[in-house]
């Protein structure tokens, strides 16, 4: 096995250790301080536009959103020990801005999704679904989400211009992109921190009013039952598959691929975390949130390698929410869009890159191999076997089919802007390949054909009352090989089954085919061979004795040649006395004269 191919780590089950994750976070703070600080700002390209747009539309409470989302950042980073982000539920956010929805309807949508995710998690359906979904479908969902971020960045980019009167122009975008490309291999370079600081400096230099510090606390705003139902039908129903696939299943597999040295969060833990965050925060007007794979890839791209990055971002959010509240929205609205475009574009590319190892080191291309040999471990003692992961080789045809399934899933996600549509498209493509492979098996095809034949016969007989017509018996003669058939078997046109023809074929003198011998019947004497019925020499019937015949003169014993009749085939002939087939006897004395 090549040295570049590393087996993936198994997915975790249950809840991670809080103390081990906290110790690892502190260790990474001292080992990679700039990377963790810069990585914490990696998902601002998605977070800031949605928060400012929803706050301007009046569908969320900014103070409660900053406080509760920051609190969930701290808990998630401390519990999981990896850069798990807390992002807005994109489907609910986009629908609430476009419709627009009221604050209570938005909260009702988040609560309804949280209740359903709780039920699916505690019944075990969510974990079972996450383990059985094929890897090409998961890679397709991740690639589709990444390319969707790229398209969103492109849509924002089209609104800019070449004007240099503000920071929102193509020149700033090009300079920021050049800086990103030249520092792409240096993950410890604080690119996101530099971009955020430069953006805030440009905002303050435009003369925007600085928010005043004060004490702000969230208020209790419970939605009514009608608001919950309206929010679910308008926005929650479209958000549910996105939360299950992108916020739970995709994050589990993405964390295992990006950070193989760390235990990945289990599906049960992520499902419980998403449900708990919304069941608590939505009663105070906080924005419906989830764990997104795009935010995880964004923080990883800009240097985050542990849970210290979301903890730092969470502390900053809580402080902003408590001391500034909704007044900080004026700064966020004027943040340069040219910087956000580059951040979102880089996060989308990082997320779409996970489809690269689909046919090389994907999780389903490894199997456990057991070596039955004695191994003496210094701590564990004697072990009789050892397990290791071995890569499974696949054919070029299987590689192409897996790639097509991933593209079909990603295409559905991008085209419909919905993960459920992409999952459906990829599943149909996956089942189509399985069906074709099954039909190529001859035994299975014959089994299906036999079952179809028996089913149709039963239907015609018992339902329609139509019975199958029995064919008439065919009388066949015994196979007889004639002289002509033995000589030229390919020119046989007619066969005569008359007794004379059969006797001629059985004659040892005229037939060149081997004689057909019939085995004797038990307790019965064998029958004599058939007499020859040659046309040249036919047997004469036995005649009774008469005096006229006995008194006729006998010819001499000498053979007298005579002339052959005209037209005969030979010149001479031989005249012989025909022999009598009766018993020979000497003449009596009274017969002589």
Automatic annotation (TrEMBL):
In this chain, composition skew of type Basic and acidic residues spans 481-496
Residues passing through the membrane, by range: 66-86, 107-127, 167-185, 191-210, 231-254, 274-296, 308-332, 338-355
Query: What GO MF annotations does this protein's record show?
Result: molybdate ion transmembrane transporter activity
Q: Decide whether keyword Repeat is in the record.
A: no
Q: Name one Pfam family in it.
A: MFS_MOT1
Question: Segment Disordered: which positions?
Answer: 471-593
Q: Which InterPro entries match?
A: MOT1/MOT2
Biased amino acid composition, Low complexity = 533-556
Q: Does the keyword Transport apply?
A: no
Bias (Pro residues) occurs at 517-532
Q: Which UniProt keywords apply?
A: Membrane, Transmembrane, Transmembrane helix
Please list the residue ranges that the record marks as compositionally biased, kind Polar residues.
561-572
Question: Basic residues: which segments have biased composition?
Answer: 576-586
Specify the protein name: Sulfate transporter
